Amino acid sequence: MNQSQPNAATPDTFAPSMPFASMPGNLFAQGYAYAVDTWQRSVLFADVMRERGNQYQAHMQERVPNVLDFGTELIVDGRTLPRPVNYGLVRIVAPDDLKPDRDLAEGHDPGRLRPFVVVDPRAGHGPGIGGFKRDSEIGAALRAGHPCYFIGFLPDPVPGQTVEDVMHAEAAFLEKVIELHPNSPGKPAVIGNCQAGWQVLMTASMRPDLFGPIVVAGAPVSYWAGWRGKNPMRYSGGMLGGSWLTALTGDLGDGRFDGAWLVQNFENLNPANTLWTKQYNLYTSIDTEGPRYLGFEKYWGGHVFLNAGEMQYIVDNLFVGNRFVSGEIVTSEGVRLDLRNIRSPIVVFCSYGDNITPPPQALGWITDLYRDDADLLGHDQTIVYATHESIGHLGIFVSSSTGKKEHREFVSNIDLIDLLPSGLYEAHMGAKTDATPYAELTQGQYVLSISPRTIADVREIVQPDPESDRRFATAAYLSRVNLGLYRSFMQPWVRACTTPWTTDLSSKLHPLRVTYELWSDRNPFASSVAKAAESVKEARAPVAADNPFLQMQTAMSNAVIASFDLYRDMRDAAVEQIFETVYGAPWLQAFAGLPPRSDSEANAALTEPGDTEEREASIVAEHERLRHDMTEGGLLEASVRALLYVKRTHGEADERRFNLAREMLSKLSDQGILAFKHVVREQAALLRLDSEAAIDALPGLLASAPPDNIRTAARDIDKLSTVLTLDDHERADLARVLTIFESASKKKASRRAEPARQQVE
User: Fold this and answer.
1) 252: Cα separation from own chain's centroid
2) Residue of 617, 733, 613, 622 lying closest to 685 (CA atoms)
3) Mind listing the pLDDT tens digit for each residue in 497-551?
């Protein structure tokens, strides 16, 4: 009897893996269909690229090129300011299709909602990415009923414009917004994307009094930080010998730096996407992908310029020097730009899928500034961070998914964020389901919760590396040396040889611009492609998805991508190895004046800004003031203190509890929820200083309150505390404060009843 062997090969065994075995029809017919489809796709692809060129030409001819999807009204032209800049403040005109998510008639007067200001990055591209589509940061603010403003810029800088000038302009813009909204319950909330994020933080360090909550999305602040083997862009400055090349580029541009070079750096990070995937995706989906591709290319190809001095300042102080996080930057007016000056909550939104601003660069400033949690609390700063698992850099502020989720949640709960006591928190957005308790207290499809975190939690994400800091400090020193050599020996000759004609020619011949310039209706061959595309659309015959030649094409594309990825990985590994070898050399580090590795305290000073005597004295004085205020206040202060005491262990903030608190506090005052910001922060500080003394002082705070009001407050505290599940410790704390409130109400009632009994007697 014949039995088949377990591994014996039969004709059917290989049939599924052989493309021709299951091929329907004739091989020649399949090949012919594929050839026709390839020809048609090629014509349509060339036509879309022609439209891209036309779009680029028209876009660059606009007076104020931008990609905003909203109407605007100019409020302030930055060129008219005492320190003129090419920035401007516009009011976003809300379109009819963006209706607020909530009923503004029910206690949410749009005239009393805080304004939002969105600031776009000037990092090589033109403005508008923050309002690129309806589901965006601007769209989220408008949908929530907030007045919204946008800070954008022109392609060309004002001659002589500096980074400090831009900071003063942003301050002037915020002053104008505050003036236009005198009834706002709080200062404007400001959103800064990418480069605009650190620019906004600089302005807030200089003028903290102008800012409400600050949201920085995909913003690099700590430039030396990064994960080994994953973030090669941070090595660029060291590999080029420092910032002398920036000075050379600015000199060749006759005092202007071409932002296309910044975009080129982004393109180089992922050669597979730059050289193949982006175009191939358009080609394979040519029947549907054209509009989306053109929309993105309108932004990606809108290159702008910076003054050479601006770019030099940025590279020396940030990209290479990393001086912002160490508090070393001092303005021309003598103001030290210290992130610890900022009193408003800072919300950091970053992604693990972002290869331009990875989480270590977005969050590393926290571990650079603060040694531990006590250090952060001592500076009375509130920081909230949220991480995304996969989205890329532009997706952080462009993707519809983040627009509908993260940005909507941040916007709709901005008052909650503004009320948070000082500390470090992480924000989570969970999906709202039928099983979500108190779902009616939330807006949209998600529930925002904010949980306390520690410096150790952020350190686990950032993974600081003192040895890496030493290498970057060495590279920064060598950068200063090379820049000095260039300025002394080369710069005069370069400037003498540069003319407006050479500058204009070099700009037009930049590789990124050439691809847009060469193929448009200005090209005499383009008209024939446009006509052919019309004919192709009428006779379009897309190939079947199971065509074997199409499958081979897909396999070839995957091989091309894999090859580019292999090249990228080998290149990045080599760059990292060279950087570490060169700048890790002990003799070079000694030449740069770095302390010995054994001197841990001196090495820590490479990134830590330290504290001044004045700041330390102010912290001591603040503690003395808090001890004096421990027994100050009334029912409002007692209620807030009791609520914070119950949740002091876990301290999770939740939008459902916040909306209930809004209702409770409205019974105590008609000034609005944000009028209690000072009360919340004060009571939280008292509990941190001495929680037992703070709770022991509650009876004194309740002594002057009517008993009915005390009982009502106790019921609200009970309801608010149990919105989320309590652990045993929290239940015991809740019982303790409720007992205090009950005793106070009974004592007050008995005192009122005593005179009545005496009169009866």
Assistant:
1) 33
2) 622
3) 999 999 999 999 999 999 898 999 999 988 899 999 999 999 999 999 999 999 9
Distance (Å, whole) CA 380 – CA 370: 12
CB within 8 A of 144, min separation 6: which ones? 100, 101, 102, 113, 408, 411, 412, 443
- Report how far apart the first and last C-alpha atoms of the chain are (Å, whole number): 118
In the sheet that 116-119 helps form, which strands lie side by side, from edge to edge? Answer: 71-77, 87-93, 148-153, 116-119, 189-193, 214-217, 346-351, 382-388, 423-431, 446-453, 653-654
- Give residues with Cβ within 8 angstroms of 571, minimum separation 6: 232
DSSP H helical ranges for 596-727 = 600-604, 613-628, 635-646, 655-668, 677-696, 698-702, 707-721
Q: Specify the pTM.
A: 0.89
Q: Compute the distance between CA of residue 523 and CA of residue 60 in angstroms, rounded to an integer.
A: 17
Residues making up the chain, counted from first to last: 761
Joined together, the tokens standing for residue 301 give 């190809």
- Six-digit token string for 64: 């104020």
Chain centre to alpha carbon of residue 39: 43
Residue 471: both structure tokens together: 């290498």
> Which pair of tokens denotes residue 99?
């209706």
Q: Which two tokens stand for residue 423?
A: 């500390």
Per-residue pLDDT tens digits for 223-261: 999 999 888 999 999 999 999 999 999 999 999 999 999
Question: If you ran DSSP here, which 8-state letter would residue 630 be given?
Answer: G
DSSP assignment of 273-295:
IIIIIHHHHHHHTTTTSHHHHHH
Partners of residue 257 on adjacent β-strands: 306
